[in-house]
Design brief:
Layout lengths: L3 H30 L2 H5 L3 E11 L5 E13 L4 E5 L2 E4 L7 E4 L2 E4 L6 E11 L8 E11 L4 E4 L3 E4 L3 E5 L1 E5 L4 E5 L3 E4 L4
Antiparallel strand pairs: 1-2, 2-3, 2-4, 3-6, 4-5, 5-7, 6-7, 7-8, 8-9, 8-10, 9-12, 10-11, 11-14, 12-13
Length: 189
């Protein structure tokens, strides 16, 4: 004959196992989803980052470097501290952009430079060096496109320009200025 006390022991063990499996499942879910602190901490940090992109023939296309790179796996966001983007083109001339910080899109097709952005185009025969100042610059390296959604100040040896926004297509070598545009031409004579 089975006593009443012996029925409670297996039931207590089953309840303990159920509680333990529930606790284990919650612990695993927290690890997978991550805590708030884990979502704000970068997955990887790299100092003195430098990347060179080449075309299929091995010819350098552009270089992206930074003092520090932080990558966040949850959002796939990448942040750069003191970034420098250089578009390497023998025919069109070298164009470089520096800023205080930047973010790179998850697919790598867009770089958002922010904070005292300075763009410089190197001097070439028949063409003076050019400097552009703006607060934000969107760089689309695969499309050879630079876009400043806010005010820009452009200067070279003979011209001073101010505009509400700017887009530069390096393939076509066309600068589009929008908003209130002011230009001052300085005669070379």
């Amino acid at each position: 004959m089975i006593t009443r006390g012996s029925l409670w022991l297996p039931l207590a063990i089953l309840l303990l196992l159920a509680a333990l499996s529930f606790w284990i499942e919650r612990s695993v879910q927290l690890t997978v989803n991550g805590s708030e602190a884990a979502q704000t901490d970068p997955e990887g940090i790299m100092e003195n980052f430098d990347a060179l992109r080449t075309d299929p023939a091995g010819k350098p296309h552009y270089r992206l470097s930074a003092k520090k790179l932080k990558h966040y796996s949850g959002s796939k966001r990448t942040e750069l501290e003191s970034p420098r983007f250089v578009q390497l083109d023998v025919e069109a001339g070298e164009v470089s952009a520096v800023a205080k910080q930047a973010t790179v899109s998850p697919d790598g097709h867009e770089v958002d430079l922010r904070g005292d952005v300075i763009v410089e185009r190197a001097a070439r025969p028949g063409q003076s060096a050019m400097t552009l100042h703006t607060a934000q610059l969107l760089v689309f390296p695969e499309r050879d496109l630079l876009r400043a959604p806010g005010a820009v100040d452009i200067r070279d040896a003979t011209l001073t320009l101010r505009a509400g926004a700017m887009e530069y297509d390096a393939r076509q070598r066309v600068i589009k200025l929008t908003g209130r545009v002011q230009a001052r031409y300085i005669s070379g004579s």
